[in-house]
Amino acid sequence: MLLREILRLSLPVLLGMISYTTINVADTYMVSQLGEEAIAATGIGGLAYFTILSFLMGGSVGIQILTSRRFGEKKEIELGRIGINILYLGVIIAILITFAGLYFSDNFIALITEEPKISQSAADYLRFRFMGTLFFVLQYFVRGYLDGLGDTYVGMLAAFFTMVANIFLNWVFIYGNLGSEALGIRGAAIASSLAGGIGFLVTVGFLLRTEILSYFRSAGWGLDMEILKNTFSIGLPSAIDASLTNLSFLGFNKIAAGIGVSSVAGSQVIFSVLSISFMPGMAFGVAATTLLGKGMGEGKFRYAELGTYHSARYAAFVMGIMGLLFIVFGKWIIFQFGGSESLVAEAYPGLVAVALVQVGDAYHMVLGAARSSDGYVLWVPLVYFLVSYCIMLPTAYFLGVGMGLGTTGLWSSISLWLIFLFGIFYWKFRQGTWKNKRI
């Protein structure tokens, strides 16, 4: 019964993550045909964009947690109020971020790298990504709401249509097909922004179902400051957590940029390859978050605990197998990104370093998601902050620059980062103090 529920919640998310990962891999692959500098520019521009957007993506976890808890408590009016207010909030925030992003793109990229070969292209890419912010923000907010209701298949469908649109539009705008000018890196950004609009339309279509509209009608259409306050109080730590983690990776890329363009390109390829392995952790993390929130709302703590542990074990099994595949076939996979032996030599040792700790990464991702759902919303970002900024970044600089190990040294620090996170989250969840938390 529990296995069936975990699979029902996680498999649609996993399939959706496959679609989103395909987008990232396809973007990197299609841009890689333009050379290492293009890979580096889109990698830095994309990471900069998602560092900003990650604040809102992390906040959507708060929406999921609050929704799953009220769903477990069967409070339909509050479910309606949550849905209505996240739409208002999403529109306002997206508009502000879009205009700020368009104005400050150059400044933001300058904080990461001043390498003239990639900084201008990265800033141009970032500006065009900001034009699609409204679509992505609303899509993530609505997905968080629907995930909390247990409708994780909606995100899967939205991701699938986004993937198909993105690959097709990449082909049109990057290379100049169907009468379009060949826009290169800028074309990749335009394609991603437009594809996000397709995914948004799919998500909103499911929000208009009769059952959910009945929640909205029962709640009325006014702003509810109490709902916004609760959403912020639960989601803000997750948002800060996501932003701080992404900022640490910006620092990681800045160190890579100091080593050279080849290190940035190699790291971007490793990120793209590893994104395939991250999918099970994220998918089973969504299942754990929903099961834990629902179980605590119903007072079924054993159900909540078993749901979390089983979710982590399934993720560890899948990610462990993927780690082995990366070790065996990693050189061939990396070679597909541009067909460069030098890129393989740059990236493969770093890929192996992280592939060896994929089981621990799985537990860290699932238990980290559960820690946010069980009421320890401030504790999670504090752990990420301390491990990222006090362990990972100093180690990355020491090994990559100080010891002269380059990209291999950088990614060895990521392995250490994952080991620490796994140990801390596993220890804390085993304590069981989360059973006394209320939100």
Name the helix and strand elements from N-terminus to C-terminus, one letter apiece: HHHHHHHHHHHHHHH
How helical, in percent, are the residues?
over 70%
CA radius of gyration is: 21 Å
How much of the residues is beta strand, in percent? under 5%
Mean pLDDT: 81
Characterize the structure shown:
The chain has one domain. The two termini are 27 Å apart. Helix 1 (2-32) runs antiparallel to helix 10, helix 10 packs across helix 13 (358-373) and helix 11 (301-335) packs across helix 13 (358-373). The model has no long low-confidence stretch (mean pLDDT 81). It has helices at 2-32, 36-72, 76-112, 116-130, 133-148, 153-173, 184-207, 210-219, 225-259, 261-298, 301-335, 341-355, 358-373, 379-402, 406-431. The chain has 15 helices and no strands. The chain is globular, with a radius of gyration of 21 Å. The protein has 439 residues and is mostly helical.
